[in-house]
Amino acid sequence: MSDPNSDRRAHERINHTIEFEGFQNEPNTVARMVASNLSIGGVYCTSCTDFPEMTRLGVRMSLPHNGNLEVEAVVVRRRELPSPSGGDDRYELALFFISITPEQKALLSGYLQATKAPQKPEN
Fold first, then answer.
1. Closest residue by Cα to residue 69 from 28, 46, 94, 103
2. 10 Å Cβ neighbour count for 34?
3. Residue 9 falls within a domain, yes or no?
4. Is the torsion defined by CA of 100, 39, 53, 17 positive or negative?
5. Are strands 90-99 and 67-81 parallel, antiparallel or unpaired?
6. Which of 10, 79, 83, 112 is 20 to 30 A removed from 34 (C-alpha atoms)?
7. Residue range(s) defining the domain that contains residue 92
8. Has residue 122 been placed in a domain?
9. For the chain, what is the largest distance between any 2 Cα atoms, rounded to a whole number of angstroms?
10. Which of 51-60, 61-70, 92-101, 108-117 is least confident?
11. Is the pLDDT of residue 94 over 70?
12. Least-confidence region, from 8-17, 52-61, 93-102
C-alpha cells in the first residue's frame, strides 16, 4: 500500500521564480504569470488573470541561456488568493503541459538542470 502523502508527480519540480506569458487565442487574452516551481510536466504559478480549471492555454517562456519555449498547457488547479490590501485579484494556477515535443523537453530539462546546479563561487 502506498503512502497517500507521498508526492505522486512524475517529474521533479524545481523551486524557481520566472516570469512568463499565458495566452488564449479565443478570446484574445494574454496574462503575465510568475512561476514558483517548474518541471518538465508543468508549472505552478500566480496570475492576475483568472483562468478556470480545464482551460487550455499557450505558455510562452524565455529561458535565460536556453532560448524560448512555447507549449500548450491546461489549468488543472486554480485557487483565488485573498488580497490583504483590497488590491487586484490574484490566482494560483497549476498548469500541466499537454503538448511538449522531445526537443522542447530537452530545452526545458537543460534549463532546469542548470537552475538547480550549485553555483560556483567567482574568484
1. 103
2. 14
3. no
4. negative
5. antiparallel
6. 10
7. 14-109
8. no
9. 52
10. 108-117
11. yes
12. 8-17
Q: Is residue 69 a part of any domain in this protein?
A: yes
Number of domains in the chain: 1
- Least Cα distance to 79 among 99, 93, 59 occurs for 93
81 has which bridge partners? 90
Could you read off the pLDDT of 20-53 as tens digits, one per residue?
999 998 778 899 999 999 999 999 999 999 999 9
Please report the DSSP string for 42-107 in residue order: EEEEEESS---TT-EEEEEEEETTTEEEEEEEEEEEEEEEP-TTS-S-EEEEEEEEEE--HHHHHH
CATH number of the domain encompassing residue 92? 2.40.10.220
Residue predicted with more confidence, 67 or 3: 67
Closest Cα partner for 63 from 103, 23, 112, 102? 112
The confidence band for 89, taking pLDDT boundaries of 50, 70 and 90, is confident
* Grid-cell match 524565455, residue found: 62
Note whether residue 3 is domain-resident: no
**Distance between first and last Cα of the chain:** 51
